[in-house]
Description:
The complex is a heterodimer of chains A (350) and B (317). With 350 residues, chain A is of the alpha/beta class. Chain A has 15 helices and nine strands. In chain A, helix 6 links the parallel strand 3 and strand 4. Chain B has twelve helices and twelve strands. In chain B, helix 3 packs parallel to helix 5. Chain B has a domain of 221 residues: Rossmann fold (3-Layer(aba) Sandwich). With 317 residues, chain B is α/β, with parallel strands linked by helices. The chains are: A alpha/beta (350), B alpha/beta (317). Chains A and B meet through helix 1, helix 6, strand 4 and helix 7 of A and strand 11 of B.
Amino acid sequence: MVKRVRRPSLVRSVLDRLVDDDVRSRASRVPTRLNEYGYDDFGFTPRAVAPVLAVTRLLYRSYFRVRTHGISNVPQGGVLLIANHGGQLPVDGMMIATAMMLDAEPPRIVRAMVERWVPTLPFASTLFYRVGQVVGNREDCRRLLESGEVVLVFPEGARGSGKTIWHRYELQEFGLGFMRLALETGAPIVPVGVVGSEESIPSVYDWRALARLVGAPYVPVPATLPLLGPLSMLPLPTRFDIRFGEPIRFEGDPDGPSVEVADKVQRVRDAVAGLIAQGLEERRGVFDLGLSRWLRGESAPHVEGGAPPPPGGLDPAAAPAEEADPGGDEPGRGSSPRRRRRRAAEGRQP
Amino acid sequence: MSRRILVTGIAGGLGRVVWRGLLERRNLEVVGLDRRNWLLERPERFRYYQADLRKRSAEDVFRSERPYAVVHLAFEDDQTVPRARRHETNVIATQQVLEWCARYGVRKVVTLSRAIVYGASPENPAKITEDMPLKMGIRYEELHDLVEYDHICRSWMYEHPQIPMVLLRPVHVVGPNIRAGMLFRYLSMARCPVLAGFDPMLQIVHEEDLAEAIGCALRARARGIYNVAGPGAIPLSVLLRELRKPTLVLPHPLLYAADGLLFRLGASKLPPASFDFIRYNCLVDGTKIERELKFRPRFSLPDTIAAIPVRPAAIIA
C-alpha cells in the first residue's frame, strides 16, 4: 500500500493498462463480506485483486499456458483444496488461485494457508494479506470454511516446495491438520494435482546453512544459477497442468487418534498422486512450447497446446486477444485451439 | 435501593467517560477513587476520594463505603514511567484492590486488561479468542506488567468463584477523552513512523462503547473474560490516511534500532517492541461478549475514526 502511494507513476500506469473490465468485474463478484472501507477481517480487499489478477492472468495464459481440468468439481460453499507443492516459489498456489478466479463460476478467491514466516517479510506480507491469503492456523481455516470460502492447503508445506529437482513429483509426508478441520467443519475435500510447477525452478541443492541464517525454511540452488545468475530464481516457462479431482467427504471424530486421521489423509494423498500421474502421462513435455511442431510446420487446429510464447512469454498483446474469447469459460482444455484459429484468421503468425 | 459502584482511576480519560455513563443511571451511586485531583463537578450521587491505591488510606474507602461493585480502571499505561513503579501500580496495587474486594463483601468486580496482551506476532490468527495464550510476555519485557495484571485477575477469578468478575480485554481505545495507550502515543508523534512493506490491520473501539461494555459487565450476572473488539478492522495505512497524519516510511530494522536508542534516551515514548503492533496483526474476536453480554458497539468504524482527536499532540501540551 505504502509503496504504491509513494511512487504511483510507472507501476500504476503499467497496471492500469493490464486491468480491464473482465478482471475488474471478476474481482468485484467475489462473494465476501467487507466493511465500510472495503476490507474483510483478514485484510483482504477486492480492490487489490484486480491488478494482481491482471498480472497472474498473463502468467496463467501466456507464460505457464495452464491447462485446467475438472474445475467444475469444486463445489459451492466451504471447500478444502489439497494440492501437491513444489517448485520453490508458491507459483502452484498462484496458478490454482488464478484458475479459480478465471475459470470457476462465480469467481472465487482462494484463501491459501501460507507459511508462518511470510508475515515477517516486508511487501510480500502486505500483498498476500490484501489478496486474501491467510497465515496457516487452525482457527482461521475453520472460520473461513464456515463462512463458505475456498481454502487451499499444501499439506506437504515447505517439505514439498523446498525439495530438489531429483525428487520432483514425489509426494512428501502430509500433515494431518487439514483432515481434522474437514471432519470438524464437514467441508468437502477436493484433491488437486499440479504438474509443471515442480520443474519451474530446478533446484539441485537445498542450502540448509544459509536458510538457517536468514530464517527461511529452505534456500534453493537452481541448476540454472551459473547461466542466469539471480534470474535463476524466477520460474521457467514450464507447461502447467492443474487437475481438480472429485470432491471427497469424510466423516469421523476430528479429535480422534492420529492413526485414524492418517488413514483418511492417505486416501487424499493417493487421490493427489493419481491426478499427478495422469497429468505427467498426458503432458507432451516439461516446457511443451510447441517448438518442434512449429519447426515441422504443423499448425493444424487439432494440435493441442499451441503457440510458442513470444520472447519472455510476457507479451501484453496476447492478453486482449483472449479476453473476448468465450473459450476461457470452458472447463478443461482451455482456449488454445480457438486462439490458434483466431490468430490464423487475423493473419497473425503465432 | 441504590447500588454503590466504586471506580478506581476515575480521574483518567476513560474513568471520566465511565463516571458520566454510570451517573446517568438513576439507581446507582458512584464512589470515585484516584490519586489525582478531581476537577469536574461533584453531583449528588457521587463521592470522590483522593487516595493512592498503594497506601492503606485507600482501604479505608472500601471499609467505609462498602461498595456493591468495583470497576478497577487504575493502570499506569505510560511506558516511560520506570518499570518498578509501573509494577507497583499495575501489579501490587491490583492485588491489593482485589484482596479488599474479597474482604469487604464486594459482589461484582470489573477489571480492564488490554487486547495487546495477546501480543502482535506473525503466527497470530486473524481473530484471537479469549482462551488463547498471552504471548506479549515473550517479546515485550517492557510491557510485562500488563501480562501479569491479566494473570492476577484471572487467578483471582478462579480463587473467588462466589464473586463474579469480568475481565475485559478491549482493543485500542480512542475518543476525545483518551490520552493514554499505545495507539494514542503513536498517533501523537509529529510524523507517524511506518514500516516499509508492512500494513497490519488495527481494531479500535470508541471510549463510549467501552464504557457501555463496562456497563454490560456490571449489569449482567456475568463472569469471565471478554474481548471488546469494536466495530471492525482497518489497515494502518487507511487509518493514517483518514486522519491525514504525515508518515515516515522506514525499513523495519532501522526503526527498531533507532527507537531502541531514542527510548533509552527518553526521546521516544514507545519501547521498540511496541512497533510490532504496526508490523503484525493483533486482532481479537469480539463475538463472545456480543453473544453472552449482548454488547454491540454503537459507533460505526467511520464514526470511531472521526472521534480520534485530529491533533492529539496539542492536547498533551
